[in-house]
Structure formats: structure tokens, C-alpha cells
Design goal:
The structure holds 2 protein chains of 2 kinds. Chain A is of the alpha/beta class. Chain A has helices at about 15-30, 55-65, 85-95, 110-115, 130-145, 165-170, 190-200, 235-240, 280-285, 290-300; strands at about 40-45, 70, 100-105, 120-125, 150-155, 175-180, 205, 220, 260. Helix content of chain A is about 35%, strand content about 15%. In chain A, helix 1 packs across helix 5 (about 130-145) and helix 5 crosses helix 6. Chain A is globular. Chain B folds into 2 domains: about 10-90, Alpha-Beta Plaits, CATH 3.30.70; about 95-145, Aspartate carbamoyltransferase regulatory subunit, C-terminal domain (SH3 type barrels). Classes of the chains: A alpha/beta, B mainly beta.
Chain lengths: ~300, ~150
Amino acid sequence: MEHTNITSARQLSRADIEMVLDRARAIADDPSAYADRHPDALLGLLFFEPSTRTKMSFSAAIKRLGGDIVDMGPVDSSSVKKGESLADTVRVIEGYADALVLRHPSEGSAGMASEFVDVPLINGGDGAGQHPTQTLLDLFTIRESAGLDDITIGIMGDLKYGRTVHSLAHALTNFDVRQQFISPESLRLPRKVRYDLHARGTDVREHTDLDEVLDVLDVLYVTRIQKERFPDETEYREVAGEYQIDANTLAAASDDLAVLHPLPRVDEIAYDVDDTDYAHYFEQAHNGVPVRMALLDALLGGEQ
Amino acid sequence: MRVSKIENGTVIDHITGGQALNVLAILGIDGTGGDVVSVGINVPSDRLGRKDVVKVEGRELSQPELDVLSLIAPAATINIIRGYEVADKQRVESPGHVSGVLGCPNPNCITTEDEPVDSRFEVLEDGLRCVYCDTIIREDIAEHIRV
């Protein structure tokens, strides 16, 4: 992989993606072979927003490669509280670490920060922008469960602000995947994502009702619709309720359907789906470790 | 109205009809700086049907100014005048990127915060795209000019 920074799924080619997924597969098959891969490596964690999965799986990933973390900690106890710019913060912390993971509430923050550092910088989520490493683990899970060519995927929920959706939709244009987008009218894909999909020859097929496409899907990628996107609670409840699934909903689906969710879920997927063969979201979350190990290994200079 | 020739400065001709005041905004001309400026708006034109013309005394345009001009007046011609003569004549050319002259309309874009970076836009065939947050501007480009 020729990239030194991973700031957006827009930069990832099919070859980049396959390299990471193949390496992740090899790591998952024999984790102990990678245990001393980067014994002195320190990964700097700069999380300006709360995170559980991304932060913990990056921590686990670097530790399982033999390295360790240096963590900025919560924003409240850092110099950001004193008004330090992001550009200054990353320039300081790059001196403490061999690579950085940044999560920040502003769109474009990772791209900007990467201009100020010489160590590899990974976007761990930038506002309603991108979340490329989530996409890599999503792709890994899709490849394992349904394959990545000649499939139909339904992407449902908050498509407007959902950064995991923006990254995934773009990355899928590298493969022979039909994408069906299911959302309320007010949370349709933003112009910037539609523009890229059109430019890459992907049809943007949009629906407001899952029933219109459920039976043709190989994968259903569900995302959370957040309360704060609506003017009032009543409207939120009304709209969000239409995009919740349970075991009953899935009766109309193909038996091989794989249901994914970047998590955390609130009530988009009822607990009764967890025990069905459709549920792949916990396995998806677990895949975060080998996939992030593979990515870190590639960025830190590990030859396969 | 007959506008007299200028001795030294710039004549911007073939501006898209109705865009002259935005051109002045790009140039930071609001009349308070004392520049001598003549403006023709919706002047009949063989090539454009109607066009605007701006003459600015005592000032030659910089490259960033020309870059932004190209976005709102792609057919404009620039005549640099020295000693009442046309010393240089050029068309505006659409640049690959424009930096610093437009503000990103996305309030959540990192370039709207107090960071040591200029805004930067990739010039698309039919608009502009923020290289940081990917936001695309198609309509009302002039509204986002911050000079």
C-alpha cells in the first residue's frame, strides 16, 4: 500500500482493500505469528470524542502486534481545553508515537491533521465525514459472509450524517456490488457521496421502505438514526420506528442474508435477531482487531 | 454612458451579465478605498448577449484573484493597461484548485475553525469541492467568497 495516511475511504483502491483484508485473514488465522511484529511501536490515540469500539480495538490491535499505546485521554483533561489548535496538538504528539489515530468532531480534521505530521495518521472518524477503518472491517465481514462481488447490499438508516455509510458506499464502488439505499427522505445520502458514486458509475437506488428491496439483499447494513437529527422527539420516534428490524421483519429476507451494524445499536435491531443466522454484527465488531492489526502492520512497514 | 479610457490598471471585459458586483467583491472594492472604478452592467455583447465590464484604475490583478474570477466569470478577458495602452491581454483560466478565497459552507468543516490552514477547493467541471470535508458547492459560488 502506498498510502502513509488513511484519512478517507475515497483514497482506497481495490488493491489496497484486498491487501488489508488478506493480511487480516492471515492474522485471524494465526495471531501468534504476529505477536512480536512491532515490539517497540507506540500508537498515539487522540480521541476528541467518546469512542469504545474504535479506541479499544486499535489499542488491542497495536498490543497484539507487540506494541503499546500513548493516549491523550479525554479532552477535558488535555491542553485542547486550553484552546490549543488541532494542528499543534498533532505536531506535539507525533513526537511521542510512531503512528496516530485521530477521532474529531469536525469533518476534514484528519485530512488537515495529516498535513502537519510525518508519522502515519489514521482517521478514526471525523464528524459526519469518513470512518475508513470501520469500512475495512465492514468489507472484511461482508467478504467473509457473502463475498464482495456480484452481491446486493442494502444500506439503511441515517445516510446523511452516517460517516460509516459514506466511507462504505464509496469503498464498495471498487467491487461489483449493487447498492440500495433505504432511509427517511430527510436523511438521504448527501450530495458529496452521490457525486462520487455517480462519478464511479454506481447507480444510486434509493428507497424509503425496506420492504421494497429486502428479498433481493445479500447484506443489510443497518445504522442508527440519532435523536438529535430531528426537531422533536415525536417526529424522531415516528421516523426511526420505521427503520427498526426484528426477527419478524426478516421473515421476508433470503435465508443467507447477513445483517451488519457498526454498533452501538439502540433499538434499530431487536434482540430477537441476535440468535438468528442473520446476525453478523458482533462478529463484525470483533473483526475490528485483526483488520486494524493488518492496517497498522502495513502502515508501520511490515512486509507480508 | 461613455466611460473614459484608463491610464494604468485593469479592464475586465466579458464578465457574465450580472456578476460585476461580485467581481468587485472579489477584488475587495467597496468604494471606501478610493479606487477609481467604472462598472458596466448588462451591456449588450455580441458574444454573450449581455455582459458586464469593470475598469479599475491603478491596479493589476493577482493570480488568486484571477482564479476566483474564473469561477464566476469563465468567459472574462483581462486587459492590463499601462500608459493608456493594452500591455497584456489574457483570458481567465480555470485552476485545478483555489486556496483561501472561498469559505467552506459546511459549518462543521475543520477549515471553519481556528486552525492554521486556508480553505482549499478542487475545481470540478460543474462546481467546487472542499478538499477537507468534500462539501460540493454548485450554486451561488460568489456567496462563499471571503476576500
